[in-house]
Amino acid sequence: MVGVFGPRQSEVKLGFTDTGRLNCEVRYTSFAAARASKAEQGQAEAAAAQALSQALEASAQLERFPKAVFDVSAMVLEAGGADAAVLVTAASAALADAGVELHDLVSAVQVVKCGGQLLLDPSLEEGGAAEGSLLLAAMASTGEVTHMEVRGRWGDGELREGLELALGGCGQLRGAVREALLAGMEERAGGA
Amino acid sequence: MASTSTTATVADDVEAEAFKRLYPEQFFDRFLGEGVRPDGRPLGRARAVTIGAGAITSADGSALVKVGRTSVLAGVRLELIRPDETTPGQGQLALNVELAPFSSPDYRPGRSATDAVSGVVEKLQAALLSGKDTVLLNTLCVAEGKAAWKAQLDVYVLDADGCVTDAVLLASIAALRNTRLPLVRNTKEGNYVPARRAEEGAAGLVEGCPRSVGLGRCPLALTCCLYKQHVLVDPTADEERLAECAVTVVVDQGGRLQGVYKAGGKVLADAATLLKCTEAARLRHKELSGLLEQSLQMGAEAAAER
To answer: What ipTM does the predicted assembly reach?
Structure first.
């Protein structure tokens, strides 16, 4: 689940900026994943928040909101694989739902390499067993990539194949998010 | 002609919205004068409830509860511990309630999310752990003095639209009852470890270890708001904000009172009002416990299929 607040005024101590900022925060529920310690969970949260802000920054028209901050807060209820990708997609949808002007919706997918095969949107077990993983966040209508993380060993051909697979996934996902947003708007218009 | 009528309704909508913002009390009074509330309910009706037991598969027990728009997710995580020396025959239950940042428009970043719900934790603690006959901690014991379960119950408030306490308590009870304790194996070294599913029936299993969390009672809560001379059952966040005071009543399955909370406020409640709240809470308990059983059954069936 993701919520967006703002714009609100930036804190003075952070200095002046003539563009807006995204302030991302990610929390995992304590039972979301089997984790050893609180510290480990804190690290995962910080890493996820950083990836989230990097993936979203380029998509929001932040130059329209000088001195403002948007708070994006996400909570992972259950981690069932490809969390980072789902976080980005959900946060982008929440930003759009909040009426923040975006260049385009960002959708993200994860592709893992498992025994020579490429798997789109892996489950937790598949993700754990993978030899390499690729996280791609893209604005699908223009085909522009906002954030990409590749881990493990990838050959040239494999990487290209993985990228194509991921971009296709992003495109599909963007359609679904768009439809959901439209349905949400219609529902609200009908309810009012 | 059609176009003029639509613009008229749009203007009406805007005006109603503005009226609500500027004069919330008058806005509210107009509804109450007619005997209804802004969301269309009569004063005495509680909101619809959905309970999803076993909503999170990675937790040992969980439940997602919605009361109107208020949504609460509770999850239980189990851990084998050596019981405390003062209580060798008991397990432990740790409670924690957290407010998700996006749950309420009142939330401000920087403020600790736990401050706003500290009252809820207190009530939950009192409902589940005081009196020692609600959650039976001795049913969490595996081997006296050697091994016991520690249940970490974390409750996350995802959307706070009034009556958070009621939803938190309901979700906690549902999650605890949804919890299945795994079998425990005694290793050659004398350590107690949870047995994996494949090892069921293998050697070294501890005899007669508990399989579920024992609950002696089933406390559930209902909050009513006192607003002027009216009693509003199960208020939304807007109504809670307007009303001067709220009364939360906790009753168990026999209709016995387990807690009454009236947190100050300008309005004084007389005995008749409190009785009315109690009666409403008893009715609500009947309604909720039916739903709870149904949902637990469905959750158990879904778990058996996996």
So the answer is: 0.73
